[in-house]
Design goal:
Layout: H1 3-11, H2 20-41, H3 46-67, H4 75-104
């Protein structure tokens, strides 16, 4: 993060101050939704569009359940983050792969 963003976050307090979890979630969700929309606009079959969306939802639910577990055990949170990261990477690869398949095939 830039020094300006860190300074703003450090000085921003109160009930309406953004939480780091919310900021990270909004970034990963927006990227995922854009990539899902791009995959659909590229003409991928419905099941190829639905599978990453379902994986993203499952990962977020696992992550949310892991937040309520006391601190020494972060396994569910980490698993949820891994689901999200793998979904983002697979969506990027699916978009490139599907576009190349349509272009070359």
């Amino acid at each position: 993060m830039s020094p300006w963003v860190l300074a703003v976050k450090r000085n921003w307090s109160g009930p309406f101050a953004p939480k780091e979890t919310l900021l990270n979630t909004s970034r990963s969700h927006s990227y995922s939704l854009i990539l899902i929309a791009a995959l659909e606009l590229n003409g991928a079959p419905w099941w190829l569009v639905a599978a990453p969306g379902l994986t993203l939802i499952i990962g977020r639910v696992i992550h949310a359940k892991g937040i309520n577990v006391p601190p020494p055990d972060f396994s569910k949170r980490v698993l949820g983050m891994q689901f999200t990261l793998v979904t983002l990477i697979s969506l990027a690869l699916l978009n490139v792969g599907w576009s190349l398949l349509k272009l070359l095939g």
